[in-house]
């Protein structure tokens, strides 16, 4: 893919509170997903596949697992002299709330100013699972001579996001109305937390908003400038799954058991890259039964598993029944257990004979390292 003159910026902590069950010791961006990935793998891979070769990750706290995962960026071919992957230092947080995009951008102002070879900045949250070619969005932005281009999707408005916005556009794609936190309804054009701007324009708007103590990106940079700036919307029409609660996290993982969803997310022409761990293949005991599940390397299964996702190194004991569950790395389910609609974080243990049941719309969650 030909390199674009675009700087990528990722917000690692946006909407941490929404999935607090999994972000006690990590950023939202580093939440495990799909048996082997982390949420941040999707936006980084999308940017790299779109020709973006300089990416900065803005984080605030709990970023150890994020650092371990992204490393030098070698997995994405970003360990390079020109461009590369940058984990930007934690920024001061003045209590503006969960949406602190303007404050976080201001804190990395020097990084933005030094990116003199990049004319544009693509800003993305890490709370949406999708596979997108940003090159089309960049071409649209240039063609329309837009000041800001927002990525939107026409679907039912998601609930629980930090600052979900619904857009109304004219026939040319120009945004003429923004409704923040609208009432849920079908077929709204809602924003996906992805924005494209000229770098110099972004820097000037950040300085202006900070000087006037304005902190909300959508409200203060988009909604307030509809009549003074050329703001356009670019549609995304493929599969996308917002992660804003433990329920939506569960639903997004379960959607991977459907072949059309896997084909949409894991397009061989736009691969999703991740850190690879070498491990032995999964082992199945004589009495093991596995149906419609995704099982990672290193698992040992001696019980029954159905409609579930098992991450690397998971162990399921004899006589145990696991249905509609997500079990993360190196967790252990003992013998004669019954689990349904349960999300188990890493290194947790369910002892023999336990029965744990959630519901499809309210899955039970077990925190990292806990023993039940």
UniProtKB/TrEMBL annotation:
<dbReference type="GO" id="GO:0008878">
    <property type="term" value="F:glucose-1-phosphate adenylyltransferase activity"/>
</dbReference>
<dbReference type="InterPro" id="IPR056818">
    <property type="entry name" value="GlmU/GlgC-like_hexapep"/>
</dbReference>
<keyword id="KW-0808">Transferase</keyword>
<keyword id="KW-0320">Glycogen biosynthesis</keyword>
<dbReference type="InterPro" id="IPR011832">
    <property type="entry name" value="GlgDAde_trans"/>
</dbReference>
<comment type="similarity">
    <text>Belongs to the bacterial/plant glucose-1-phosphate adenylyltransferase family.</text>
</comment>
<dbReference type="InterPro" id="IPR005835">
    <property type="entry name" value="NTP_transferase_dom"/>
</dbReference>
<dbReference type="Pfam" id="PF24894">
    <property type="entry name" value="Hexapep_GlmU"/>
</dbReference>
<dbReference type="InterPro" id="IPR029044">
    <property type="entry name" value="Nucleotide-diphossugar_trans"/>
</dbReference>
<protein>
    <submittedName>
        <fullName>Glucose-1-phosphate adenylyltransferase subunit GlgD</fullName>
        <ecNumber>2.7.7.27</ecNumber>
    </submittedName>
</protein>
<dbReference type="InterPro" id="IPR011831">
    <property type="entry name" value="ADP-Glc_PPase"/>
</dbReference>
<dbReference type="InterPro" id="IPR011004">
    <property type="entry name" value="Trimer_LpxA-like_sf"/>
</dbReference>
<feature type="domain" description="Glucose-1-phosphate adenylyltransferase/Bifunctional protein GlmU-like C-terminal hexapeptide">
    <location>
        <begin position="288"/>
        <end position="355"/>
    </location>
</feature>
<feature type="domain" description="Nucleotidyl transferase">
    <location>
        <begin position="22"/>
        <end position="230"/>
    </location>
</feature>
<keyword id="KW-0548">Nucleotidyltransferase</keyword>
<dbReference type="GO" id="GO:0005978">
    <property type="term" value="P:glycogen biosynthetic process"/>
</dbReference>
<dbReference type="Pfam" id="PF00483">
    <property type="entry name" value="NTP_transferase"/>
</dbReference>
């Amino acid at each position: 893919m030909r390199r674009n003159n675009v700087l990528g910026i990722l917000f690692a902590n946006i909407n941490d509170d929404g999935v607090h069950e999994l972000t006690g010791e990590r950023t939202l961006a580093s939440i495990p997903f799909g048996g082997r990935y982390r949420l941040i793998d999707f936006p980084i891979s999308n940017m790299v596949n779109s020709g973006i070769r300089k990416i900065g990750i803005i984080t605030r706290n709990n970023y150890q697992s994020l650092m371990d995962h992204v490393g030098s960026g070698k997995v994405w071919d970003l360990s390079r002299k020109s461009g590369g992957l940058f984990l930007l230092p934690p920024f001061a947080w003045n209590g503006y709330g969960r949406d602190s995009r303007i404050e976080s951008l201001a804190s990395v102002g020097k990084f933005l100013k030094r990116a003199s070879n990049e004319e544009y900045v693509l800003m993305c949250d890490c709370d949406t699972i999708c596979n997108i070619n940003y090159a089309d969005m960049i071409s649209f932005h240039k063609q329309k001579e837009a000041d800001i281009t927002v990525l939107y999707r026409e679907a039912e408005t998601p609930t629980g996001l930090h600052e979900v916005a619904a857009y109304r556009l004219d026939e040319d794609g120009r945004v003429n109305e923004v409704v923040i936190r609208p009432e849920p309804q079908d077929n709204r054009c809602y924003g996906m937390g992805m924005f494209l701007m000229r770098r110099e324009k972004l820097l000037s708007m950040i300085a202006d908003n900070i000087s006037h103590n304005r902190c909300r990106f959508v409200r203060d940079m988009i909604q307030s400038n509809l009549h003074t700036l050329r703001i356009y919307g670019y549609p995304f029409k493929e599969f996308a799954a917002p992660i804003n609660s433990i329920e939506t996290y569960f639903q997004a993982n379960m959607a991977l058991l459907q072949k059309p969803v896997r084909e949409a997310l894991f397009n061989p022409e736009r691969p999703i890259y991740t850190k690879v761990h070498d491990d032995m293949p999964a082992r199945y005991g004589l009495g093991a039964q596995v149906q419609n599940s995704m099982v990672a390397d290193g698992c040992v299964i001696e019980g029954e598993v159905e409609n579930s996702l098992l991450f690397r190194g998971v162990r399921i004991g004899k006589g145990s029944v696991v249905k509609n569950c997500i079990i993360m790395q190196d967790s252990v389910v003992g013998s004669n257990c019954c689990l349904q609609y349960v999300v188990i974080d890493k290194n947790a243990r369910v002892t023999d004979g336990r029965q744990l049941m959630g519901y499809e719309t309210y899955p039970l969650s077990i925190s990292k390292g806990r023993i039940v």
